[in-house]
Backbone:
């Protein structure tokens, strides 16, 4: 079998997605996601101009060699644009393999380790009362694990909290808007929020919280310690992770489990975090982390150090990545949990898929390959629109870590 054609589709059914479609001489095609929130067109151009011409004529079954060719052959290694482009190719090739062999991708990765994938969702509110109401709503939908975020008293707006009714989408159309941040206000408030949540919902519910990289290691240590009585499933992205040793400081001060890595794109972003056992869950995911070929090695390395996966699953990861993640989650031993932020009906119509959600669990489906398609005619009706995540500034105007 040979790759005979490939093209990139950029569409915006409510938010932007970049999808690579690879076609073979046997009429089988595969899909890969290359969406990089706020930098979508750079991946689209990288693929179209620099990658697609190099893969035409190759055997799509040679996933390892093609991965190494794109990673080592480029000279410029790593980085989110490069690794998202490599991921788009890799995931599309595994989709082709599955379809050619008439089997779901999870069977190619090791087969089923579990029947379903444990998922967590988001509950948010502008204050504690609204957050509690949203948790009750999410519980009704069947979720047994819920990430809780709330507006912070004293701050006029906070990232991650919907401004009005309707479905929340973190990327906003147009140029980036600016939000406020104060670590002092945040640290005073969050332990009180979780005290109220446990009081209202008891011990059974799994609770998670995302710090969005805003704290220093010692501040994160303090927060983790104060949250210990509420037994969180994890505290996410407590501090930016460029300085991996920063997590040693956090670890020395708290037993609250730590998750990190939704912005990672290579094992070299996480090597020290994993091998020193400074984290519990790795959030690096297929689309930004080089696809199945790289993530399988990373997950196996993490398993040696008792680190489990907790893949990023926000709406900027397309249904192609959600499908791919569910196959991966199903097939690896050290799976922990999968983030689930459901896509809009418009997005689901552009990407018809076989995966499913029921009672807090996700199911990859048994279709050959990934079990996800791209309706290109419908996608054309939603042209790309510039959109960014907001910028965050401290009350004195200093830019925040993301
Ligand atoms: O692209 C960035 C968003 O996906 C991110 O801000 C969402 O932090 C997030 C999460 O944990 O889902
Ligand atoms: Mg996050």
Residues:
């Amino acid at each position: 079998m040979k790759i005979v054609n490939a093209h990139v589709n950029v569409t915006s059914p409510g938010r932007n997605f970049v999808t690579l479609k690879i076609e073979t001489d046997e009429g089988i095609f595969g899909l890969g996601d290359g969406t990089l929130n706020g930098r979508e067109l750079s991946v689209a151009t990288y693929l179209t101009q620099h990658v697609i011409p190099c893969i035409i004529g190759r055997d799509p079954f040679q996933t390892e060699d093609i991965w190494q060719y794109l990673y080592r052959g480029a000279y410029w290694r790593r980085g989110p644009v490069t690794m998202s482009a490599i991921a788009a190719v890799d995931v599309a090739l595994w989709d082709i393999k599955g379809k050619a062999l008439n089997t779901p991708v999870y069977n190619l990765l090791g087969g089923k380790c579990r029947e379903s994938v444990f998922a967590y969702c988001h509950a948010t509110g502008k204050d504690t009362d609204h957050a509690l109401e949203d948790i009750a709503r999410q519980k009704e939908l069947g979720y047994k694990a819920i990430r809780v975020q709330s507006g912070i008293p004293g701050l006029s707006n906070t990232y991650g909290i919907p401004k009005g009714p309707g479905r929340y989408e973190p990327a906003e159309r147009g140029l980036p808007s600016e939000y406020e941040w104060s670590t002092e206000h945040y640290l005073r408030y969050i332990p009180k929020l979780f005290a109220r949540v446990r009081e209202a919902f008891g011990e059974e519910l799994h609770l998670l919280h995302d710090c969005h990289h805003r704290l220093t290691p010692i501040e994160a240590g303090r927060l983790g310690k104060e949250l210990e009585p509420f037994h969180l499933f994890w505290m996410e992205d407590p501090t930016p992770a460029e300085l991996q040793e920063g997590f040693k400081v956090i670890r020395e001060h708290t037993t609250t489990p730590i998750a990190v890595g939704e912005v990672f794109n290579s094992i070299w972003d996480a090597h020290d975090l994993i091998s020193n056992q400074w984290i519990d869950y790795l959030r690096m995911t297929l689309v930004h982390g080089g696809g199945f070929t790289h993530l399988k090695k990373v997950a196996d390395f993490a398993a040696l150090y008792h680190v489990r996966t907790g893949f990023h699953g926000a709406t900027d990861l397309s249904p192609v990545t959600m499908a791919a993640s569910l196959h991966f989650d199903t097939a690896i031993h050290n799976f922990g949990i999968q983030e689930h932020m459901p896509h809009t009906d418009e997005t689901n119509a552009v990407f018809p898929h076989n995966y499913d959600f029921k009672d807090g669990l996700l199911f990859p489906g048994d279709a050959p390959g990934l079990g996800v398609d791209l309706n290109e005619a419908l996608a054309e009706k939603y042209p790309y629109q510039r959109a960014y995540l907001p910028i965050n500034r401290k009350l004195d105007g200093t830019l925040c870590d993301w």
About this structure: The CA atoms of residues 55 and 66 lie 8 Å apart. The mean pLDDT is 97.
